[in-house]
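Worked Example 4.2. Read the sequence first, then its structure tokens.
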Amino acid sequence: MKDAHSIGPEKIIRRKDDGSLEYLGDELTIEEPLEIRIGSKTLATTMRTPGHDDELAAGFLVSEAIVRERQELSKISTRRENIVTVNLRPGAKFKLNTAQRFGTISSSCGLCGKTSIDAIRQNFPAIKSTNVRIDIDTLLSLPEKLRKAQSDFARTGGIHAAGIFDANGELKIVREDIGRHNAVDKAIGHAFLDELLPLDRHLLLVSGRASFEIVQKALAAGLPLVAAVSAPSRTSSAWFWIENRLSAGRRTQLQDRDRKLFQPQSSRSD
């Protein structure tokens, strides 16, 4: 639930044409740290916009391949300020050393805190739906639909959004956050907690660029389509090609350097 303030009042300084300054009231997006714990162990600390912290934690655990079924979570507690505690069901195990992030995950870096290249890539089941298609006119209409649902962006102009749409272009879930990776985790976490995964008949739209981490989070949720208002990175599009799990309208030639990037260290020859 969105039980915290995501926007706060501030003042901005504006220089007028005559060189004088004026002080005006404005609304700014709040950015605060959130510590994600599993039991008594700290898993990660991320800079996020308060609100939907339970969904953020759930989506983060899904994206890190720590949980895959709703039944694996026993309880999520957000009673302490800026701390969310996840309790796994009795008997559930995870390797903290491989999942733990070191340092704070900034709002612009969803992969920060990973200690090795091997730790960046996660393994997820193949997406079941390989024939999902969306009409081009419907696709082009989605950014405006997402924009209209961004209530916090309308007030601040400084917050990302992630929207999950069905194949007919109907917006099912929208979440906002100062970090686009957090917005995706919140949207995926909402679907996970409602036992809607995999989202193999849906599309993810993000307000920023389509980076590797966004693609990987989509794969974690079983999303076959990813769209963004900005361009994809070369690595994210190459990874689409490597995995052969997400639908892509155009596949680029994969060079050796891209293949080597995602090979385990033990299998590299150089």
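Now turn to a second chain, presented in exactly the same format:
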Amino acid sequence: MIKVIDLFCGVGGFSEGFNKAGFDILLGVDYNKKLKSTFEINHKNSKFIHYDLLDGVLNCCKNKDIKVIIGSPPCQGFSNARGNRNPKSNFQELRNSLPLKFIDWIDVIQPEISIMENVSGMTTMKINSRLFLEDIIDKVYKIGYNIKIGLLNSKYYGISQERIRTFCLIYKNKYKSFLDYFPFPIPKHIPIGFKKRKLKKRNVDIWHFEETEKNFFPKYNKRINTINDVFKNLNENDNLNFILQTPNEKEYGIIKNIPEGKIYRSSRFGERYIGVWDLFKSQLKLNERFLLFYMCKFRIRKEYKTKKKKNTEGYLLSSFFKTYKQMFNLLLQNKYINKENIYKLLLQNNYLNPNKTLELLEEKKWIRSIEINDEKAYDINTKSGIRPLYLRLNRNLPSRTIMTTSFNVRELIHPTINRPITFREGARIQSFPDDFEFIGTPKEIATMIGNAVPPLMAFKLAKYYKDILKNKNI
């Protein structure tokens, strides 16, 4: 069997896929010792080593004829989530250097190929105006290996999840003739009506399915798997069939109104989103709905909001709400509404004073206010869908990306039941088999599931590279 080690192994999602494909997982290495029990109970022929990979290559990994190294260095420094893109401490800088340490292990162990997984934000992360990926590429070439980088979406490989991740394939020269041109397995779950996306200009070459030619792919395409596919035959007595938190009365009041497939965000617009003016239309009068819609449309616009810093939103001055006519005309000018006679409807209902409506909305906690230079400024409240999101999954589509936070009340909601998804549902979306055991507190289990490489994605990669490693003609 082909020997593999899994660095930054977590609970072993990557290892699970490679094991199922017939690889021999010698060991998993991770700094978090709380993962040991889960890794070892699911990989009985493998060893978990609690170790800080910054301390260099373990002696037990040297001269072991290890053919493959897999791993997922911690990704928070590359995440697109707010506050995560700039290293603000020595600790964060160390975390961002872990992918480079991964390459040090390759240099010492000399495997045939290695696969490093990380979040999609890794492709755009810059350090001192230079892409971090360029540092990785330079270091790979320096140790005499080759590298191809891909943005792979799990849904194209049979996982019921929209999960785009960066995969760095690092390989020896003898595989160049093949892997230079076909570095990643061709996906077979291709969406109906797939159209090539415009090629993005990048400083580094990145393989991306959506930017490739349709005719390059096989004609026996399989359909995209959905939530319906993974929520079948769930066992009520399953030990993971529970939720992290029960919604409180306020949260339940929001959740029960969210239609299937919709996200409750009042500062985002489009088919996927539902705003407070629609979600709670049975509780709001026409003028209240109008003011909330108006506020949400302009609270993110630089020329109107009072908070000008990057990644800040909101607070419109009271002078911005003088009359309904003024507000209506501004919406028309910005093409935010059609020329429906909403203004006349407001007048007919005797809604003449926006200030009274603002006071009432604040009293009911739909909005909040602050003083700015002796003038009141208003913004929507959390109750009105400011943040975080509530997303009700759609049974006929793949899930949104499963993350460590996905089990919170305000994150992923069951398609038809008014609650967050259970741990079993999240594990199934991540393609973990039902016999995979998770040992830890509920919050620890949420982190284990959310941080893992989907085992089915790992399996598809493992099968592909196993064929290449065994082909002596390459």
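Notes for the reader: Residues 403 and 450 are 4 Å apart (CA to CA). The chain has a mean pLDDT of 89.
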